Amino acid sequence: MRNARHPERNEIEVLSVMGALSDPIRVGLVRVLADGRERGWGELRAPVAKSTLSHHLRVLRDAGVTRTRQEGTRCFVELRRDDLDARFPGLLAAVLTAADAAGIGADVGLAP
Amino acid sequence: MRNARHPERNEIEVLSVMGALSDPIRVGLVRVLADGRERGWGELRAPVAKSTLSHHLRVLRDAGVTRTRQEGTRCFVELRRDDLDARFPGLLAAVLTAADAAGIGADVGLAP
DNA sequence: TTCGTCGTTCTACGAACATCGAACATCGAC
DNA sequence: GTCGATGTTCGATGTTCGTAGAACGACGAA
User: Fold this and answer.
1) What does the alpha-carbon distance between residue B28 and residue A53 come to, in Å, rounded to a whole number?
2) Keywords for this entry (chains A, B) (predicted)?
3) In this structure, is residue A35 part of a structural domain?
4) What is the pLDDT along chain A (112 residues), one digit of tens a residue?
5) Domain of A61: which CATH number?
6) Do residues B56 and B26 make contact, with C-beta atoms less than 8 angstroms apart?
7) Is B14 helix (H, G, I), strand (E, B) or coil?
8) Cβ-Cβ contacts under 8 Å, B90 against chain A
9) Is the distance between the Cβ of A59 and the closest atom of strand D smaller than 7 Å?
10) Is residue B6 part of a domain?
11) Domain boundaries, position B25
12) Which of B19, B89, B94 sits opposite A22 (nearest CB)?
């Protein structure tokens, strides 16, 4: 959003990323974004209130996991895969594989 | 830990592991154990009270990150590297590399 | 301008967490 | 049996987290 603080690639901290990826909703969001496509905020579906979804997206953004871009009145979210892979090689892939196998965050998805 | 519950390899959950590895003290403990050697409880040094250290070791154990063995009145702790690598390939290595580079948990060590 | 949409922020609350000191249980040594 | 060492557990405390609803600010459309 407006005061969005996206950490630079070399400012991304592993503890923050681990913390961000220890919640099922947030892992679900990452899974949805894992195809590399940018998604509109309103496209995202999660079993939580709007304010809670905003909170989770903020945690991901602050940790450096996602990037949020504002365009007019709406936002687009994207996974910072390149930055994460460069900084923590193998981490994202490991989490995605495990989450996929366990079905974690399966209740997070996209609008029909 | 007489009632120590060590999850089986296939019971280890990625969210629990991520949560366990999102605290600097616990990451420091994992770094100390990363050489694969089993360590005595009393050998471990961390800037927290004994009860707090016990708590952190329990979190790691419950998550399946470490294994605790009791021998008489003392305990020995060990990293479950094989199980973690088998279940979440690349995860532990990624975290250890990042933690090492950032000096996370550097205040955790071994008795002289 | 007025209205409605979009997403954030504020406020609040219960749950979970990190922390400590004290009390406890267990075991080996004397 | 008694003592000391070793970890765990309990109780308390302050903090952080996940959650929701309400209010807000920014923008586009009518």
Assistant:
1) 32
2) DNA-binding, Transcription, Transcription regulation
3) yes
4) 556 789 999 999 999 999 999 999 999 999 999 999 999 999 999 999 999 999 999 999 999 999 999 888 889 999 999 999 999 999 999 999 999 999 999 999 998 7
5) 1.10.10.10
6) yes
7) helix
8) 89-91, 93-94
9) yes
10) no
11) 13-98
12) B19
Q: Which residues from B are below 8 Å from A90, CB to CB? A: 89-91, 93-94
Q: Which of A10, A11, A12, A14 to mutate to test the interface with B (most CBs of B within 10 A)?
A: A14
* Cα B103 to Cα B100: distance, rounded to the nearest angstrom: 5
Q: Shortest CB distance from B104 goes to which of A14, A93, A98?
A: A14
Whether B76 and B41 have beta carbons less than 8 Å apart is answered as yes
Q: What is the DSSP letter of A61?
A: H
Could you tell me if A56 and A29 are in contact, meaning their C-beta atoms sit under 8 angstroms apart?
yes
The shortest C-alpha distance from B25 to chain A (Å) reads 11
Strands of B42-81 (E only): list them.
Answer: 44-45, 66-71, 74-79
